[in-house]
Amino acid sequence: MTPVPPAAPQRPDPEHVAAHDTAWLLVQIRWVAIASQFAATVYAAQVLGIDLPRGEMATVSALLVAFNLLTALSLRPKGPPVPDWVIAAQLGFDTLAGTVLLALSGGAQNPFTLLLLVPVMLAVSLCAPSRALPIYLLANACFWGLTLLPASSGRGGGAIFLAFILASTILSWFTLRLRANLAARAAAIEALRRERAEADQLVGLGLLASGMAHELGTPLTTLAVTLDDWADLGLPDEPARGAALSAMIAEVKRCREIVSRTLRAAGRERFEAAAEACAETEFRRLLALWSTTRDRPPVPLTIAPGTRARFLTEPMFEAAALNLLDNAEAAAPGTLSATLTVTAGEVVFTLTDRGPGFPAAVLDHPGAPFVSGSPEAGRGLGLFLTRNALARLGGRMELANSDRGAVIRITLPRLDRDGDLA
């Protein structure tokens, strides 16, 4: 039997991780609150000399410690996510425990009553509004109960209660609006990310289509010329007709190979990630591939020292390079030459020809769509698609004219920047 390959490790669910982190954050906040409450109690009793029911307060604190320990032990990294109602229940317990401690230490006159706002803010920030509403109501009810204690009577308890309601309401409303704004921003960012991914796919498909169009040009021209001659002059004699048919069949097979190779490249672009490549090896391969698939003479390549440096490439970079070579060959046939150099941080590939150079419109707007020196309609997408394909790899394209013709410079970031240039 063929052994079954082991399953790939599953990536953790981001929502599960976020829920676990939220529950763990509450445990940490509760430890800080318990430590702060203990320090405040010791300070009030020892330094300020306030008589507090230490036994009752110690009992409540012990319950909080036990509750937090149980909560921490129940949090397992691979366990089920903590639902909102559990978070809200924990915050409700914190609110009740805090209220009891405040009731034992001065009621509404205790300056630490403002800490009852903390569970409300945490509930509004971490839970759904329907789960946070009971915590909001509970905190206000507990504060109202504190104002009814004998220690708080006759000292403006009503005004203090009104201030607490206003503070909890305003802070809750502001937090809810902030959450809504952040959610809308996150949705907008996700939409932009999807649009960018779709644009990248369209750029890749455009480069493949452009390259296929250049490759199909030669065999289709051969077929068209042969058929036009037959239409104008009639069918040739049998020996010549058989040879012409064999040549036409070969050109049709070539067209099929070009289409099949383009489809394979499209699938490879979808399923392959970017990979490292040696600069000298990769550019030699690209020039040889272009010369072979286009039936063109080899492009002379001048290589500077240090071209063993590595850079990041992907299938669409191949399509972009072939597209540039196609455009340069169409502008100045048989005059192409290339240079490969490496600096401390970049790989630079320069392609030159001995043609008329770029028009001013192309130099003023390099890589802009439908800006071309060709009078044919629909031209001018090649440089635009190439520029976007290079941008995916962190590279750039520069266009210029020299006294001998056009110059195209491709610059890509080098991966081994600290390597030896020699």
TrEMBL record:
<protein>
    <recommendedName>
        <fullName>histidine kinase</fullName>
        <ecNumber>2.7.13.3</ecNumber>
    </recommendedName>
</protein>
<dbReference type="InterPro" id="IPR005467">
    <property type="entry name" value="His_kinase_dom"/>
</dbReference>
<dbReference type="InterPro" id="IPR004358">
    <property type="entry name" value="Sig_transdc_His_kin-like_C"/>
</dbReference>
<feature type="transmembrane region" description="Helical">
    <location>
        <begin position="23"/>
        <end position="45"/>
    </location>
</feature>
<keyword id="KW-0472">Membrane</keyword>
<keyword id="KW-1133">Transmembrane helix</keyword>
<keyword id="KW-0547">Nucleotide-binding</keyword>
<keyword id="KW-0812">Transmembrane</keyword>
<dbReference type="InterPro" id="IPR003661">
    <property type="entry name" value="HisK_dim/P_dom"/>
</dbReference>
<dbReference type="GO" id="GO:0000155">
    <property type="term" value="F:phosphorelay sensor kinase activity"/>
</dbReference>
<keyword id="KW-1003">Cell membrane</keyword>
<feature type="transmembrane region" description="Helical">
    <location>
        <begin position="57"/>
        <end position="75"/>
    </location>
</feature>
<feature type="transmembrane region" description="Helical">
    <location>
        <begin position="157"/>
        <end position="176"/>
    </location>
</feature>
<dbReference type="InterPro" id="IPR036097">
    <property type="entry name" value="HisK_dim/P_sf"/>
</dbReference>
<dbReference type="GO" id="GO:0005524">
    <property type="term" value="F:ATP binding"/>
</dbReference>
<feature type="domain" description="Histidine kinase">
    <location>
        <begin position="211"/>
        <end position="416"/>
    </location>
</feature>
<keyword id="KW-0418">Kinase</keyword>
<dbReference type="GO" id="GO:0005886">
    <property type="term" value="C:plasma membrane"/>
</dbReference>
<dbReference type="Pfam" id="PF02518">
    <property type="entry name" value="HATPase_c"/>
</dbReference>
<feature type="transmembrane region" description="Helical">
    <location>
        <begin position="112"/>
        <end position="137"/>
    </location>
</feature>
<dbReference type="InterPro" id="IPR050980">
    <property type="entry name" value="2C_sensor_his_kinase"/>
</dbReference>
<keyword id="KW-0808">Transferase</keyword>
<keyword id="KW-0597">Phosphoprotein</keyword>
<dbReference type="InterPro" id="IPR003594">
    <property type="entry name" value="HATPase_dom"/>
</dbReference>
<feature type="transmembrane region" description="Helical">
    <location>
        <begin position="87"/>
        <end position="105"/>
    </location>
</feature>
<dbReference type="InterPro" id="IPR036890">
    <property type="entry name" value="HATPase_C_sf"/>
</dbReference>
<keyword id="KW-0067">ATP-binding</keyword>
